[in-house]
UniProtKB/TrEMBL annotation:
Residues 210-292 form the UBX domain. The gene is UBXN1. The keyword DNA repair does not apply. This is UBX domain-containing protein 1. Residues 63-83 have a biased composition (Low complexity).
Amino acid sequence: MAELTALESLIEMGFPRGRAEKALALTGNQGIEAAMDWLMEHEDDPDVDEPLATPPGHVLGREPTSSSEQSGPEGPGAAAGEARPVLSEEEKQEQTKRMLELVAQKHREREEREEREALERERQRRKQGQELSAARQRLQEDEMRRAAEERRREKAEELAARQRVREKIERDKAERAKKYGGSVGSQPSPPATEPGPVPSSPSQEPPTKREYDQCRIQVRLPDGTSLTQTFRAREQLAAVRLYVELHRGEEPGGDQDPVQLLSGFPRRAFSEADMERPLQELGLVPSAVLIVAKKCPS
């Protein structure tokens, strides 16, 4: 039996004939090992089973021969008449065994290489994941820091705006208090003492009109709330208006509109001239209910 060619050896090892021929042709017939390396690397290629055109004068599985070698001095039939060494069955089995061991070794080397490549890809993936996580965390920290700075800035602006409003209100209060002279009595006056029983006189004289030195005023605001304060009977009505303007509540926007006072019954609108008259003279003693209406500025 003739010695097995490279093509026959690859077929004996289980490789398809088309792949074996293609591997030998593409590796330049450099031997079984080179062909096996090519088969291992390209076994998953989609076109691995496509046939490959063989150039003229090229025999798959053998070294290409020149025309001079084919038609040597002894003619083309001289090489054909030479006999190749005959291998025994044991030698053939030994050769096949070595080829199979070589294939197994190539498989192991390929598996080890793929395992190393997989480990390297996993290491790179984890590294990229850690870098991405760190970048995302830095971005979140930057956003949180910017948001905190924005909140602090807005809070500082709001506090400054409130301070400006309070200062303006205080200035307005001081100007009004200075305009109407003196300060409104914020201290509650002691309650008026109730008169004791008047002993009846035998002459049945008519009771004299009592003089009140204090006046209790209830003021109803436009929003439905009310203010109650005790004033001296000789205080001017302007003191009541100033008290209302100071205690009716702060409106957003700054300036407070002046108010106009009305009596409940009988209906009466107090003028600027009435503001200079005492409460006693206006008939608001000992108690009265006033209504606040918006006064349009002149």
